[in-house]
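User: Second chain of the day. Same drill as before.
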Amino acid sequence: MTDTPQRPLRVLAAMSGGVDSAVAAARAAEAGHDVTGVHLALSANPQSFRTGARGCCTIEDSRDARRAADVIGIPFYVWDLADRFREDVVEDFVAEYEAGRTPNPCLRCNEKIKFAALLDKALALGFDAVCTGHYAKVVTLEDGTRELHRASDMAKDQSYVLGVLDEKQLAHAMFPLGDTVTTKDEIRAEAERRGLAVAKKPDSHDICFIADGDTQGFLARRLGRAEGDIVDETGAKLGTHDGAYGFTIGQRKGLRIGTPAPDGKPRYVLDISPVTNTVTVGPASSLDVAALTAVKPRWCGVAPAGPGTYTAQLRAHGGETEVTAEPADGELRVRFTEPVRGVAPGQAIVLYDGTRVVGSATIATTTPVTTAVA
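Assistant: Same format as last time:
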């Protein structure tokens, strides 16, 4: 099996204006592919420049991407996908928080924008593949089918946010950084050797459409103030909040509870009820989860025919945990070998078989250890 195409391809390189996508585009061109760079204008107000390492998709970023394309020597365009991004990513993000769930907008962007809207347009224009700066690998098997695998460097692996890609999308995906076993400093050094001005540009770690990093403030502006109760597991009122949407499962800070717990230990968010606008808090032990049900499964290839044993990743920067999982009635039912703590509905669970990504689904409900035991 191989993870590099055997013939030159017409490649559309998505260039965010950052160092990873610039180096990826340069490597694709160096490999002999016919590469065209494209920057996605996703912001409804691109006039604002990034602050420090926050945000992306600004005019500054498009200019950085254009300069990188000029150095690489490839054509470059800016495509306006702001309306599609607002509908499929931003509005989904707000609706999920309003419903008491915790979404992952980067995963949704990969699914709906980079490997749906962008890929569809690329294929319509005669391109063979979309290239991005993600750290992951597409492996081509002898029969021509493709698998998504973790990057060679686990420290930089981003396969979790790509777990929504199906076999058709993988057939047209290219990740030139996936085999890189180097530090980020070495990637920057490579960019500098190639004459790319983005070599020293800081990474973006925040939600791109919330440039100041204040997620709660962003949601408050969209959803308004909605005062409700903070209660313990018995239903006793401990305090109030300005909107249940401002909390996530497992949150410890910012609870504004005046009354200390009887045991003196910290309390955590255990449940968010948008119907009653109530946030339930309790001890860390009550966050332990034995099983979960996930919806909207997407498979990176053929769907599993029955139950199987896998490892699972539950958050973008989380570790792996062993599970048994079974698709059933359009859902994915998962049981953990050992309890896990702080699983938030709305997040993705991504299943792995070794380094291979099996598929992804959105966590809908969880079964606490206490309930499972009872």
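The CA atoms of residues 104 and 347 lie 6 Å apart.

User: Great, on to the next one.
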